Sequence to fold (855 residues):
Amino acid sequence: MDPSRKRRIRLVVALSAAVILAGALAYTSFSASSAAVSPSRLLASADTGHSYQLTGKVVDGSISRHGDATLFRVRDRNGSASVPVRYVGAVPDPFRDGREVIVTVRKRGATFVGEKDSLVTKCPSKFTDKPTSKT
Amino acid sequence: MATVGQACLILALLTCVYGIVASLYGARAGRRDWVDSGRRAVYALAFLAIVSFAILVSAFLRSDFHYEVVATHSSTTTPAFYRAAAAWSSQEGSLLLWVLLLSLWSSVVLFLVRRHLRDVAPYATAVLLGFGAFFTGLLVFAATPFKTMAVAPPEGTGLDPLLRHPSMMIHPPMLYSGYTLWAIPFAFAVGALIVRRVDADWIRATRRFALAAWCFLGIGILLGARWSYAELGWGGYWAWDPVENASLLPWLTGTAFIHSVMVQEKRGMLKVWNVSLVLATGTLAVLGTFLVRSGILDSIHAFGASTLGAPFVILIGLMIAGGIYLVVSRRALLASEHKLDSLLSREAAFLGNNLVLVGLAFVVFWGTFFPLISEAVTGTKAAVGPPWFNRYTVPLALVLVLLSGIGPVIAWRRATWANARRNLLAPTAAALAVLAALLAFGVTKSATSLAMFVFAAFTVAVVVQEFARGVAARRAMAREGPLRALVSLVQRNRRRYGGYTVHLGMAVLFVGVAASTAFQHARDVRLTPGTTATVGGYQVKYVRATARPVYRGERLERVALGAVLDVRKDGRHVTTLRTERGYYPSAAPFASGSLIRGIFDGDATSEVGMKAGLTRDLWTAIQPDPEYLNKVIDATAAKTAGKPPAQQAQAVGRLLSVYRQGAFPAQFRIISSPLVSWIWLGGIIVFAGGLIALWPAPDAARRRVTAGYAARVARELGRA
Fold:
């Protein structure tokens, strides 16, 4: 076969493979993703069984334990609307009242159940503008 | 001193601007004196950055809380080592560290090439000083580390306890060294494209810097993983967090570049690919720096300083647009000198390795930025989790490990089947033997892990075979003993055998990742003293509670509540694990009127209990049950609120005693994980291999001395 024709065929095959793989990547990312939502949006519309990535702040005084589960409420970053969360498993070190958290949840009745190992508490100091009045 | 520091930063910015103008004018007008002056501006920048950085670190060491950045990131109870390192835990300090490292590495490379690449170097100098101007500009106008307060607070807020780990303190300088070192090949690639000199000279001049960048960035990433494993209370080392991914992206494209430049040096091929890779890597390094400051993605880190976002976006936009323009406008010059002769050749293996690495980078990029992509497409921010990343990265990593075994032993241009058979037969047999052994021992739980063990065995066998052949040849030629032959073999071919060592380390590292991921046993259990849990065949008994105050000098650094765990297997004692949770008092523990509130309302971190071994790690972290603990804290706080400090301190002592003697329940995460140590061991081997490849060969050093001497003699003769 003519070498230049052979190279063209190789190129077309490689590009087709790349396009197919990129398409699969894009498709699966949309189908496997969890929507990032605030508590107020979750209160307004949440489907039972559907997975959401809840972001917000832990409501002061809301953390309690029931057996292996940690119960707490997450509120909007700049608001008071909040949802109850039930999380089983070890919580991250910085987890406490007022801290910003991200947790993957599914609606079960009136509560949102956190997926194991999905609770992330934001590290509060790194590169943030900390008010000096705290000192 | 703050004024001196700020003046140094302003001078540094002016020096950068002057250096850029001098270098560009010198290059355009053919004025060597201006070019030299531009280069010296880089040395001056390094000097000014050192002075600024020394002033800042000194303020941290002295706990001078007049400096706002010191008051918000350190305290007198922060240990001295961490106080010095706390300088780069802040936004301002980390930007200054960026400038310092950039200026130091730039000075080294420009000093080394001061008599070579005379056409390329001035433009590279201008690009490097452009980065310097950008970051010093941020330090002068947006994030100055020398902002002071008229009245210093009596105490600082302290370094976040989570960051008080040795690897976390070395991690940022390593990572930033990697980022800033990637600016060097980037700058020289831009210079080479501007002057249309696209041969391999700029690659040779910056090869060691690219290797060093790759090495430092890799070690930085690994130290971050080690910190996560040993310090954070979740027991993992990688979570596909955007911050982790941001550092992985330039490392992946950089790895591809390090391999593909060999094809350009050897065969004059892949020129467009190489410049594109190095431009992408430089841009991704800046993107990584930007991402951890932008707040555009949800991450474990809270990033508040979004004011820096706009300048970074402009810089990254300029880098992308400028890079594309240069590559497109010089595409005729970048044509390959040869074509790919055969798919059974080292060029093809390197190309395959490059495609896999770039594919991995694309997957990581897509997953990391998916929240923004999803928001742009659907209007809703959505994120993908670790299972999505694993779905794509695991098969790609398998191919990569396999190729890292095939690539080094296959011939350039066109390998014959006989050649392939000769080099691959023994490693294939070794891999099949490992497969048979694993199947015989019933290691069939995870097909991907099994494949990884087999491919890694293949790669290790290839490396051992190559070392054995080299030593045998050396012994036959020079009649040396085996050890002497090994040392001289490596000394004479540092790049080659350094590369083999890196491949060996990567294979070991991937075995550790595969084993610890697939065969880990982890349990979250609630125990009271005297009770036992079983994890992966180990019986873990909560023997007793511990509670102690930890002082730094006369000041209370933390209160530690913990546990002693007895670990047994089949009734035999294996080890005793001790884990604690440290409660760090807030900067003003009496502010609420209650010391006990000041202590337990501050930051808290896990002190992991770990028995690390070559075959298995036993890992545990404790979280005292807040429901029970809070009742005692509330009761004690109510009784002692407003009492003199001495009485409150006694109450804290009593509380610790109650905790030690009471049967408080606590939540434990207990993990039994095989071969985790192989990850760190593999990392050390990779680092050693990188150092071997980086180190100048004695012959090359001698050649340089001889060439330098010859040039001097020629100059003297010319004058005579």
The longest strand of chain A covers residues 100-108. Chain A touches chain B through 48 residues (CB under 8 Å).
